[in-house]
Amino acid sequence: MKADSMKTKSMNIKKLDLSVEWDATKLRNLMTNAKRLGREDIYFDAVRQIARIEGMNIDDPLEADFAITMRALEEALSAESGQTKRLSRTKQKLKRAGVKQTLADLAVSPTPSLGFMKLVEFKMADMSAEALILKYQAEFDEETVGAARKRLAEHGVEPAA
Length: 161
Hints:
Elements: H1 2-11, H2 24-36, H3 40-55, H4 61-81, H5 88-97, H6 99-108, H7 114-121, H8 129-135, H9 142-154
Helix pairs in contact: 2-3, 3-4, 5-6, 6-8, 6-9, 8-9
């Protein structure tokens, strides 16, 4: 009975507005507590906010959004495995090809990337390369936009309006 009332109590905690928190240490502590209390919503909101810290000083909106995406994926993968995870190969590709080509290559690849699948699993598909391509579709060719739209649809992800 006590466990049930505790679970009910944790479920009744109101949603926090983390958009004003810029201290990564506080956000990581919040992630730990949210995970312990079974509050996946708060956990992933904290992951997203930590990621926003990464992109806040990048002037180009597309580059900033992709930096945020990469950081969110690194945070989520690290938390899942208990070990620090970095997207080294994607960062190398970014340096070689730039953000637009990296995103396009991810979208037109015949199979979804591990990053895409993990973002879907973590309920953060709105941060995927494919979602960014649709958000900034004027910067990509029709083939790339179509591939991004198709991949999202195949995985039951509704593009943002």
